[in-house]
Amino acid sequence: MLTFVGRGWGCARALAPRATGASILVVPGSRPALTFGAARESWATDRLYSAADLKEKLDMSRFPVENIRNFSIIAHVDHGKSTLADRLLELTGTIDKTKNNKQVLDKLQVERERGITVKAQTASLFHNYEGKQYLLNLIDTPGHVDFSYEVSRSLSACQGVLLVVDANEGIQAQTVANFFLAFEAQLSVIPVINKIDLKNADPERVENQIEKVFDIPSDECIKISAKLGTNVESVLQAVIERIPPPKVHRKNPLRALVFDSTFDHYRGVVANVALFDGVVSKGDKIVSAHTQKTYEVNEVGVLNPNEQPTHKLYAGQVGYLIAGMKDVTEAQIGDTLHLHKQPVEPLPGFKSAKPMVFAGIYPVDQSEYNNLKSAIEKLTLNDSSVTIHRDSSLALGAGWRLGFLGLLHMEVFNQRLEQEYNASVILTTPTVPYKAVLSSSKLIKEYREKEITIINPAQFPDKSKVTEYLEPVVLGTIITPDEYTGKIMMLCQARRAVQKNMMFIDQNRVMLKYLFPLNEIVVDFYDSLKSLSSGYARDKAHSIGKAMCERLKDCLPRQLFEIAIQASIGSKIIARETVKAYRKNVLAKCYGGDITRKMKLLKKQAEGKKKLRKIGNIEVPKDTFIKVLKTQSSK
Amino acid sequence: MALPGARARAWGWTAAARAAQRRRRMEGAGGSPSPEPGGPRAALYVHWPYCEKRCSYCNFNKYIPQGLEEAAMQKCLVTEAQTLLRLSGVQRVESVFFGGGTPSLASPHTVAAVLDAVAQTAHLPADSEVTLEANPTSAPASRLAEFGAAGVNRLSIGLQSLDDTELRLLGRTHSASDALRTLAEARCLFPGRVSVDLMLGLPAQQVGPWLGQLQELLHHCDDHLSLYQLSLERGTTLFAQVQQGALPAPDPELAAEMYERGRAVLREAGFRQYEVSNFARNGALSTHNWTYWQCGQYLGIGPGAHGRFMPQGAGGHTREARIQTLEPDNWMKEVMRFGHGTRKRVPLGRLELLEEVLALGLRTDVGITHQHWEQFEPQLTLWDMFGANKEVQELLERGLLQLDHRGLRCSWKGLAVLDSLLLTLLPQLQEAWQQRAPSPVPGG
């Protein structure tokens, strides 16, 4: 498991980090599949739900702050987050129990296929406990730490989390990352050990791990089977009893946190908000603290999980707000909204999402340029964290250089382009941004600043004009069976990583923490790591390498000399193919009657040769890159 | 047509001097002069379009005759020869080649009639090379002798293979022993002037057995041999069989291996590879074919025949590529009406001619000498054209091409991949041509 929780910048050579709490989480040996995310669900707005009593506009004033609980469920992928959420929704009558709610809530095809949440969703649950009506806001977080900034924003709307751990597998890397995110946000953490119904479940071992790693007494763990519904009631009880109500003031002027936003073609931006102070209702004039733009509120409501308009939203509550924002960049995650002429101290921690992985994106066919452009524009309406720069490549033509939060983010974006907009694209190998501290005064003048960020390798300034280069670094956590520790440490060293911590979380599992240069792990670190334990990635790399070589061999015309095609990981060659040299390429018969035809043929071939690009000595048909890359991306 | 081995010479030498040159022909290599473009000399190709049977690999312009009136055919060939000789203003015919089809199926009288017509219209020196393509079965010794009496002095025998299975595959009507018998008879009649064709790269053919055939052939052959790699041509039976999977596709790697080994074997046996597919010893080069590769003039008569000449007799100043009407019946009608059956005339520009000089000249072992080049392009030398080009330089460095005081030519290794070399050389020639200064009249 490899995830980024935060980022920093380090000196490209000396690794002097200015890193914040970043996290890479890797779990070789525990599970062969390469997984990226933790969440499997998001609440679809078009699902049936049984909140028949909510047809009238809700009066939210009947939920005083002390009866409100805002919480998230966080978990490693497949540890049962979606199933638990389903059960909670059923228990509280939010969705119908008779429906088969097993993994039905994913909205995007990509979410269903990858088992991740790309867009966070929120559901307000109404629950009667000991004679009191509670409002339980389940605030979903994006499932992968590529989106860690969003996760932390979502968490900042909560007071507590359910930390779900699989009774079979125990603590996994992402469990650790999620825990520390919640811990840093000073949230109440309720450990939930799930899947106790499984034959090999070992809840006691997991309890011990939780105690050792998170310092949470083992008796605080709730052991459940979300699948069977076993003991799920006590989870709701713990939410009410152990998570404090939000510390907010209804009397103060409005202060609302935007923790997510979506774009609706008819209504514009729908902002998900958590109210820290005050009240907001339709007709209010509100201001974005970030942009200072003023809007009039058209609609407020709760998510149940569908949008359910209400008269008002009160401090401590979580819901949505539509205010004529035309573009998601106007409702940036982490922004604070306040009433017009009643400015407030913005909520802490707002920053614009910074892309950390860049890749070129090109239409497979240049005639598709405009279609792709419009698809990218539409998609970025819903995802303001993607940055766009126009780019062009000799081989691939006109395209863009897009910035993503992480690799998964990039893949998801690409997949959505293909699935939702039927766009066929070529993605280049991702790179990370570098910073250069300039020494040349001429360059400083040109760039108007001393420290510049380089997102395109082609624009790297020469080292004679630079004092130092900085590269992004991330803190990674690796949890592994101890027999692989040595190999993993060697791998990390080879990737210029610096060890920060190492501990046994139980008798045979080790947790390692390393500070990695992002560039070292952005492309194939997962595969290398997996290969150490399972051989999986090695085999995969071999087969991909071999397939690439074979494709290239088929695409390259024979030349006057032999061409070796090699696939390598680092310096290790994993596959090789040869395009043999022409040995005989001359027409056997060329007499009087053959000359005209022969000359015509030669000229045609010479024309064809002009269409080849020369790379080194090798003549390559222009569509070779497209053929090879295209097949790769569709794999 | 001047011959390899002769010295470069201006126009106007005497017949006696040239005859003397011819007697000394092929002594020593290199320094081959070329005919002046447009000079009133030419080679003559005569196409006999009929065959007994279609060979499975052949896509030439040939027909299985039905009630052939040879007298009419003969008359038309004679008429067309006379017409084109007059039109071209050619005064000397340096070689005649009867090709086909299967010209050995024609009557020796027809051959004699054409040669007589040529000799009457222009000068046909007694020692001009007169070649006839012969098919083993259609050419018993007696008939070959008659061809000799008619004026033929060189035979090219379509032997193709010494393996009967392969011969059947090729759709040939003869057996290996037929071929060897014909070869022996031909050598008695035309000593030192018999050529045989051997094919390579047939479906399922292996290197070892093929080399065995070549070795055996060396025991029987005369001083000239052609090695032809089979090329599968659309529209042939063989092509269809390979397409349908009834036969394995010929393996180009194996063919390359056969060619490579075959060249070496022939070199050992004292043969000079004077062209991509042609090997000769004791100076027995085909002067007719040499004319093609040196871009000499040639007239083509008979259905579908190609020619390249300047119609000086009709006041023309540009060389033309000419094609005669393909179908024998139509061709005959046209010849009877207009005196010739020329269907297509395409004037060749100066650059086009240079392209042919380059592409064809490099097929020969001497390549393009500086003198030869100068006759076609007096201003820009080979150095000017190719000396500074980086890609050409690379070919020189790779040892595929040689450019030196003698001229431009392929190396041993380069000759086998000439078509690839030309893909670099031809565009460079075009570029240098376009950049030449001062630019002559556009289109000139």
Automatic annotation (TrEMBL), chain B:
Entry's Gene Ontology cellular component terms: mitochondrion
GO molecular function terms noted in the UniProt entry: 4 iron, 4 sulfur cluster binding; coproporphyrinogen oxidase activity; heme binding; metal ion binding
Bilayer-crossing regions: none
GO process terms (BP): porphyrin-containing compound biosynthetic process
Coarse class of the protein's main subcellular location: mitochondrion
InterPro entries given in the database record: Aldolase_TIM, Coproporphyrinogen-III_oxidase, Elp3/MiaA/NifB-like_rSAM, HemN_C, HemW-like, rSAM, rSAM_sf
Domain of life: Eukaryota
Pfam families, per the entry: HemN_C (PF06969), Radical_SAM (PF04055)
Ranges where the Radical SAM core domain occurs: 36-272
Subcellular localization: Mitochondrion
Keywords of this entry: 4Fe-4S, Chaperone, Heme, Iron, Iron-sulfur, Metal-binding, Mitochondrion, S-adenosyl-L-methionine, Transit peptide
PANTHER family xref list: COPROPORPHYRINIGEN III OXIDASE, RADICAL S-ADENOSYL METHIONINE DOMAIN-CONTAINING PROTEIN 1, MITOCHONDRIAL
UniProt family annotation: Belongs to the anaerobic coproporphyrinogen-III oxidase family. HemW subfamily.
Purpose: May be a heme chaperone, appears to bind heme. Homologous bacterial proteins do not have oxygen-independent coproporphyrinogen-III oxidase activity. Binds 1 [4Fe-4S] cluster. The cluster is coordinated with 3 cysteines and an exchangeable S-adenosyl-L-methionine.
Protein name: Radical S-adenosyl methionine domain-containing protein
Record organism: Cebus imitator
Name of encoding gene: RSAD1
